[in-house]
Amino acid sequence: MFHYLEHSTDPDRELRAAHEALCPGGHLLIEVPDPESRYARLLGRWWLPWLQPQHLHLMPVANLRRRLADLGFTVVAEQHAEAHDPVDLLAAVWLALDHAAPREDAPWLPARPGPLHRAARAALLLAAVPALLTATLLDRFAVRPLSGRLGLSNAYRLVARRQ
Questions:
Q1: pLDDT attached to residue 151
Q2: 127: containing domain
Q3: Is the pTM of this model over 0.70?
Q4: What stretches of 8-162 show up as alpha helix (H) in DSSP?
Q5: How high is the pLDDT of residue 74?
Q6: Domains in the chain: how many in total?
Q7: Which residues are CB-neighbours of 23 under 8 A, at least 6 positions away?
Q8: Cis status, amide bond into 86, omega within 30 of 0
Q9: 40 has a pLDDT exceeding 80
Q10: What is the pLDDT of residue 104?
Q11: Residue 69 to residue 142: CA distance in whole angstroms
Q12: Which of 82, 122, 126 minimizes the C-alpha distance to 101?
């Protein structure tokens, strides 16, 4: 279940179904965004995994471990740094830009933006290319190697064995 449970309307039902589908001794691999990550706190509303309406449920690792145990699984591995997807700074810059100059198809806008708004958005995005490139480079080459030690991993991965 790679980045699946957070999209499910009923993650508990999905976990119960996985338990039924797996034979005793079988393994379940789950990877989900980590709402307790340092990035979630540092970036706040600009942290990509808060993504709405696609992400319906974000589970702290202790909660998921507890539920898996209740269902008859034993967690045999937990990874954070290895599950990190290095996109946080880039996504934060993009989300801030998208907030400053919303796309014309945003359903919450009171009226469809006119040509002046579209031109302003294009200019803003063009001016922001250096910031987007810098964020990408920082994500990939500065933060990624240190993500585990700094607690910046934006996801976690559990491997659980059915008892």
A1: 81
A2: 5-162
A3: yes
A4: 11-21, 38-43, 61-71, 88-100, 115-127, 129-137, 147-150
A5: 98
A6: 1
A7: 162
A8: no
A9: yes
A10: 81
A11: 37
A12: 122
